[in-house]
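Figure 2 data, in text form.
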Amino acid sequence: MLSLQKSFVKFSPNVPENAQQDYQRILAMETRSSLGNYLGAPIDFQGSKVTLFTHLLDKASSRITSWNQSFLSQPAKVIIINSILIGALMHYLAVFRIPTTIANKLDSLFAAFFWKDSHGKGLQWKNRATIQKPKGEGGLGIRNVGLFNTALLMRKASRIRQNPNLLVSQIYKRSTSSRLHHMTHITLSSWGRRGIVTASTLLDKLSNWKIGNGRDIHVTTPTWMNGSTPIFRDQVPLSAARDIRVADLMVEGQRRWNLSKLYAMFEPSSARQIRSIELPPAPNICDEQYWPHTKSGSYTTKSGYAILLQQQNEIYSMTSSLDKDFFRVLWGSRIMPIWKLFIWKLWHNGFATKKILYRRQISDSSECPICLHDCEDTNHLFRYCPLAIEAWGNRDLGINRAPVLAMPMREWLRSWIMFFYKKDGYYGSRLPAFVATLWTIWLLRNEQVFRQFHAVWDKHTLSTGIGWAFRESPNQPIRQFGCYSYASSTIAALSLACLKVVTWAQLAGYLHITLTTSSTSLIQNLKTRGSPDISIKWTTDAIRNNAFTLNSCEVVRVSKLQITEAQQVALWCRQHEMDFG
């Protein structure tokens, strides 16, 4: 029985309008312009394909937004992207060819989710192509949506080819005797059919031939000779070779090659390769295509995606065998996932060092914020900076405290990790200790609170404005504070400002601070035990006592241009006679 209330009819645009009305009256059914959706996917496609698949962007974006209130580490984000975000789109990717525009936007969305925090802040230190490489090739294994879509469609095409009795296989056949790869001649196909045809053509291109009776393979067909095409002798015309089949190279009625034909037609190297091909045990076995990238010869989505990614990025020409060994040890080592990603970033120079920030015009200086002497890059920060030298000196790892300057950071990192792994094995303790030291250097560097302070003094009213500005790391926004007070001199106002800052940092719980000032006399007074200026004796003593409660406290002289923010606050506090912040 047919329920007319649950049924509807959809007419082709080619059906005249009067005919549509007649059919609708006869069928007594509702008319619709679209067949609607099934399992969230459209059944028929009309109009712009990009518009039809835009909801995939909304779906992925809404899921990412729902996680904004949760703290997710970057290793966790890699798992979420590959397992949840792409997994939620699987029933689309496995059926339809996603438009390139949508695939690229999804890739960009996932890359932004990986690099940025829950507030949408953060810089993408490496491009999408790098993080989409396999882990063994120096990437993170984040899937490329477009290539993964193609690999899934190739799996469907392979399933249709291997199972000709399936209903879907029958639908995709042009006739009962045609093969799937003949579908390339079909025109005016539906969007779903076009995706399968494209994937089938690519599958043919990447597959090899398994020789059976040799009747379906021409000698000019690519990949029939152990995945390659034989080289013909110079005297053999290609026009004549096109009509020769592999079966013509065999001795009729016997399962062996006709050697005289082989050596007469092909170069000796090609003839030897043909002789090495396995021949079937019976003459009635047909030729068949197989997938050469798995031992079984059966197509898998994993192997198909790997080949597509390799072809796109030309990975093997970019990554040396030494680098592959390094990444194999890194990802298989017995350390925390967040440490593995930390070493990966260090390898790719993916840290917000002052040199990179200055090059990107984010920072106004490339000077190391720890020692204020050299340009801060990963080499300086993790090997040459006083903070790094002290850290390595406290570790019994045998690492030279004065490394060879000529050794690049990548080579230095690889040599030590491979050394510890080869000497100590998988369960060794020196490799985790080495990575932990690098991690500690980075944390201590980021825990340094950079402050500038200044005081503006009026000799007539003895009023003074005290200002200080700080940031918790070089790529964080500057925060400003200030207060209004009285002092007997300029040096007294500056020493009072220094005491205010140290006391504030102590109460705020900071353990490592670096103070910057433009006053040389203040620094001289702090360096000299038993201050030479009696007017600030108690203040300098208080500064020293409070500084001793911190793990590290350093006062460094800089130019006035580098304490502009503190000057502005100090002047505001004196003019308005009130505190700031």
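Caption note: The two ends are 78 Å apart (CA to CA).
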